[in-house]
Specification:
Blueprint: E1 5-11, H1 23-30, E2 36-42, H2 48-58, E3 63-68, H3 70-77, E4 86-91, H4 97-101, H5 109-118, E5 120-129, E6 137-141, H6 142-149, H7 157-172, E7 176-182, E8 185-191, E9 193-197, E10 201-203, E11 206-207, E12 219-224, H8 232-240, E13 250-255, E14 257-260, E15 267-270, E16 273-276, E17 281-294
Parallel strand pairs: 1-2, 1-3, 3-4
Antiparallel strand pairs: 5-17, 6-9, 6-15, 7-8, 7-14, 9-12, 10-11, 12-13, 14-17, 15-16
Helix pairs in contact: 1-5, 2-3, 6-7
The chain binds magnesium ion (MG).
Magnesium ion binds near residues 125, 213, 216 and 218.
Length: about 300
């Protein structure tokens, strides 16, 4: 008889707009008892998931599952990098960019548990920074301003996120003056948006690039220069069609290393969570550094 694998589910009971109350019941119902011995842990404060995942690694767990959005996955992933313990996901956030890239169904515990039961383990890239690792995307600009002003978890769905962006643009937003080095390219100007992607997703099934890969060892980067507000809908439409090339204010890059020079006014978003940081920020693509459970049939990711 094959030995059972130890799997731990880490649930943040309070964060997020989607109720996770019945998740333990769904785990009990749909987990494969032949394959797994499971444990459920609840987090009690921000950052607790990182500590719990670290303990799981020390205790020899084979799989650690983040139940939540990109922010929760980020917290769990920090402790699994470079270890044998695989990351699993039951996506219950608002945007779910990371899971959507990997074709793990959002807000569908049964579907996500099926991936854990029948899926395969692959190695994927992450973005390393001097602050923390990034699983989906990070950067600064209009999105980091929105993340700071409107509590990330209070935004439910694409429409309310879009509304928050429009309000931010019209009422508050000032472009970021920054100096950024993208490999050998140096940009020093006003940025509306700067995002480095590991996944192809902002979330809400909203991808900017057609072919972003989590196993190619490079980040995909989008830069938006100043644009008039009336062009917003044209720009959003182009981005939704994954045609950033049609926007004259947009530039895209592929990079292994990025340096954002420090300045007093910088506010970042890391996987949707806002981070204030005034020193330099370095992003580096780290190839295939974490084990991840993905659907059995997933080949392009
Ligand atoms: Mg990549």
């Amino acid at each position: 008889m094959e030995e059972k694998k130890k799997i731990m589910f880490i649930i943040n009971p309070i964060s997020g707009v989607y109720k996770k109350k019945n998740i333990p019941e769904k785990i009990a119902r749909y987990i494969d008892y032949v394959k797994y011995d499971y444990t459920i842990r609840f987090t009690q404060y921000a950052g607790h998931a990182t500590l719990i995942a670290q303990q799981a690694v020390a205790e020899g767990y084979h799989v650690c599952v983040a139940v939540g959005g990109d922010g929760s996955i980020n917290e769990v992933a920090q402790s699994l990098i470079g270890t044998e313990t695989a990351l699993g996901v039951i996506p219950y956030g608002s945007g779910n960019g990371f899971a959507t890239h990997l074709k793990i169904p959002p807000r569908d515990a049964e579907g996500a548990l099926k991936v854990l039961n029948t899926g395969k383990v692959v190695k994927i890239d992450l973005i390393k920074s001097n602050i923390r690792y990034v699983v989906s995307n990070a950067g600064f600009g209009i999105d980091s301003s929105v993340a700071r002003r409107f509590h990330h978890h209070a935004i439910r769905g694409l429409a309310s996120y879009a509304w928050a962006v429009v309000k931010e643009l019209l009422l508050y937003f000032k472009p970021f003056e920054a100096k950024v080095e993208i490999d050998d390219v140096v940009l020093e100007k006003e940025f509306f948006l700067f995002t480095a992607f590991n996944s192809n997703q902002y979330g809400y099934d909203y991808a900017v690039f057609p072919f972003t890969s989590m196993k190619d060892g490079v980040m995909d980067v989008i830069v938006m220069n100043r644009f008039p507000v009336w062009k917003l809908f044209y720009i959003v439409a182009c981005l939704m069609l994954k045609r950033a090339d049609l926007i004259k204010e947009a530039e895209s890059y592929r990079a292994k290393r990025i340096k954002i020079h420090g300045s007093k006014k910088m506010v970042y978003q890391f996987d949707g969570d806002s981070v204030i940081w005034h020193d330099d920020v370095i992003f580096e693509a780290v190839p295939q550094c974490i084990n991840m459970i993905v659907p059995e049939g997933l080949n392009s990711y």
